[in-house]
Design goal:
Length: 355
């Protein structure tokens, strides 16, 4: 355990006031040698007040200022700074987390013991809010799953914690809540695509690593507790919806996009009426407007070219890892569960036969 590790935390507005201190305290009691840990906090909507708060409350961390709130750009900045400082492992972690004392040691061990892996994700548990939950914690995710229409969702959400043996490969993608990678991987795949701004960025990062020939694994003994709230994600609906289209347009072969077009049209129509009913029509129109701009398609073309350059595998080699059913535990919709998912799953099975 003599390798220098850079841990990147991203602050946004009053995030640090809510979450920094318990996260900081859990980092200070890590069993990994503290002189081999460097913490970088990206103040991602920086103000004099936020910078002062971070500096006073985490003096051993390096605070880097940014102003536009771009989460992907913040992670890139943190990783680049850590690489300049000689860090041999790079960790991204949400600030709304608390780590067990073995967390970092086990996360590093995961990559040390699995040279074929490019990314290792911690076991992410829901932060316990009751005494019962402390005794019997629930799972946030053991690795996220990816749906062919571009949706991403957790695995084993809200189930009882369970023992996981070894370092299982994640069939999907590593949750951006917490994972480790190496500088060579980060540089090889070009880091985070800053066009995503936030959301689906972890899918994009993992897919690039997989196409470049690296496995994504779970480090089950590296345990982190996440103060997860689904409602916070819903507030960023525009990026969630826009970026799923951005993702498939960047990664999918043209013939697959053409075959899946009817499914996208049907789902898009359904989401239009859903947005109308929920009062989110402005968000739906913003997403449409983004893809009507020629500059957006130029960026997509550029992304496709960059992904092709780094790819040692074909995207179709990953088809077996992609889900046919949409599984959002937070949204219990009988129509989706009993009708929509069966149709979607059938459609995806036919697509896999063709590709």
């Amino acid at each position: 355990m003599n390798k220098l590790v850079g841990i990147i935390l991203v602050n946004y507005k009053d995030y640090a006031v809510q979450y920094l201190l318990p996260c900081r305290d859990s980092l200070r009691i890590q069993k990994y040698p503290l002189d081999k840990i460097k913490v970088y906090i990206i103040d991602n909507d920086s103000s004099p007040q936020s910078f002062l708060y971070l500096s006073e409350n985490y003096p051993e961390a390096k605070i880097l200022k940014r102003n536009d709130g771009n989460y992907c750009a913040a992670n890139n900045l943190g990783f680049q700074e850590a690489i300049k400082d000689g860090c041999e492992y790079l960790v991204t972690a949400n600030m709304d987390t608390e780590m067990t004392p073995d967390w970092l040691m086990e996360l590093v061990f995961a990559l040390e013991n699995n040279p074929e892996a490019g990314i290792a994700q911690s076991k992410i548990l829901l932060y316990p809010k009751t005494e019962e939950a402390k005794i019997h914690p629930k799972i946030n995710t053991l690795g996220n799953r990816f749906h062919f229409l571009g949706f991403g969702f957790t695995s084993k959400y809200n189930l009882d914690d369970q023992t996981v043996v070894g370092y299982p490969e994640i069939k999907g993608y590593a949750s951006g809540c917490c994972f480790v990678t190496k500088p060579v991987i980060f540089q090889e795949i070009g880091g985070w695509n800053e066009n995503y701004y936030m959301y689906h960025d972890d899918i994009e990062f993992s897919l690039k690593a997989k196409l470049a020939g690296h496995k994504v694994i779970l480090a089950p003994k590296s345990v982190i507790f996440h103060k997860y709230e689904f409602s916070r994600s819903v507030r960023m609906l525009y990026y969630m919806e826009r970026n799923r289209y951005l993702l498939v347009a960047s990664f999918y072969p043209i013939r697959l996009l053409l075959f899946l077009l009817p499914a996208f049209i049907i789902m898009g129509t359904g989401l239009f009426f859903f947005a109308l009913f929920k009062g989110w029509i402005k968000t739906w129109l913003q997403t449409l407007a983004y893809f009507l701009k020629p500059t957006s398609w130029r960026e997509i073309k550029k992304s496709r070219q960059e992904i092709k350059k780094i790819s040692k595998l074909k995207f179709t080699d990953l088809a077996g890892e992609i889900e046919g059913k949409v599984d959002f535990p937070e949204i219990d919709n009988p129509l989706l569960r009993y009708v929509g998912n069966n149709l979607l799953d059938f459609y995806w099975r036919q697509a896999k036969k063709i590709i």
